[in-house]
Amino acid sequence: MMSAAAARPALALLASASASLGAGRRAWARLAVSSSSAGSALPRFRGRRSVAAAAGGAVMGKAGPGAVDADAGMNAVQRRLMFEDECILVDEQDNVIGHESKYNCHLMEKIEAGHVLHRAFSVFLFNSKYELLLQQRSATKVTFPLVWTNTCCSHPLYRESELIEENCVGVRNAAQRKLFDELGIVADELPVDQFIPLGRMLYKAPSDGKWGEHELDYLLFMVRDVKLNPNPEEVADVKYMNRDQLKELLRKADAGEDGVKLSPWFRLVVDNFLMGWWDHIEQGTLQEAADMKTIHKL
To answer: Where are the alpha helices (DSSP H) in the chain?
Structure first.
């Protein structure tokens, strides 16, 4: 675990970045650049791998040119994210053991052959009416396109600010970053310390014959009224739903009506945790529901 002393410089940088987000954060136009011009991405932390990673070969290397050619039809934005973003590899006890491209982390052949497991997060954002914000993933997403899911689902990256483990600061930083990228919610509206980590779950789910997920997922909750500006490269639709509306969405998904599909991780949270946690939200006792010691294998 990163020490508090080591974490302070990263937290100071985060505070400075948050203060200037309104004027200085990257515009949506940045998302439209081709992968050949994506070298301006933020630098990533390149610290030494753990002993476990070095011994076990946890870092499998960048996907080669052949992989790029094989996926030439992939949307340029998604291709850039797949090959440039590096996820945090962990063991089943959530110890960091290395890093790998998002592309390799989501190939089912690598998941099945190497048991590749990466850290993730799922944000559940409620408004002051205690309605849950859902998003429908865009049609250009490589994994699980056009499925309905919770507010935001993504990965902390292998960079210093998102590797801070104390109080889940790294995962919270990643959630703040991605909520801006996907939904246009500025950092001032999502203070990092207001994300409440309620639990962790470990799951595996195929998307199609090629892609899938194998994640150790942090479940982050927040009650906050925010302004939305969804990014169409990431999000096809958004809706706030109360409990009854969510139950109707679940019914449609189960019946195959209107082409409604749900992400597997969202369904796992709904079936195992969400309604009980929703009670705590309405009662103002959400912190009492938190259990960050257990890793639920679902």
So the answer is: 4-19, 21-24, 51-56, 65-70, 76-84, 102-105, 108-114, 169-183, 243-255, 264-269, 275-283
Cross-strand partners of 87:
100, 157
Rg (CA), the chain: 18
Amino acid at 26: R
Residues known to be catalytic: 153, 215
Read off the tokens for 103: 């592309």
- The most confident of 67-81, 100-114, 205-219, 269-283, by mean pLDDT: 269-283
Residue 7 has pLDDT above 50, yes or no: no
How far is it, in rounded angstroms, from Cα 209 to Cα 142? 12
Number of H helices, E strands in the chain: 11, 10
Q: Which among 116, 115, 133 is positioned nearest to 124, based on CA atoms?
A: 133
Strand partners, 101: 86
Alpha carbons 10 and 184: distance in angstroms, whole number: 23
d(Cα 284, Cα 280) in Å, to the nearest integer? 6
Q: What is the pLDDT of residue 31?
A: 33
Residue 216: band (very low, low, confident or very high) from pLDDT cuts 50, 70, 90: very high
CA distance 187 to 174: 11
Assess contact for 269 and 156: CB atoms under 8 A.
Answer: no
Residue that is written with structure tokens 């009662």 in the block: 283
pLDDT at 123: 98
Angle value at C-alpha 26, between 25 and 27, nearest 5 degrees: 115
Residue 77, classed as helix, strand or coil, is helix
- CA angle in degrees (0–180, nearest 5) for 31-139-111: 90
CA diameter of the chain? 54
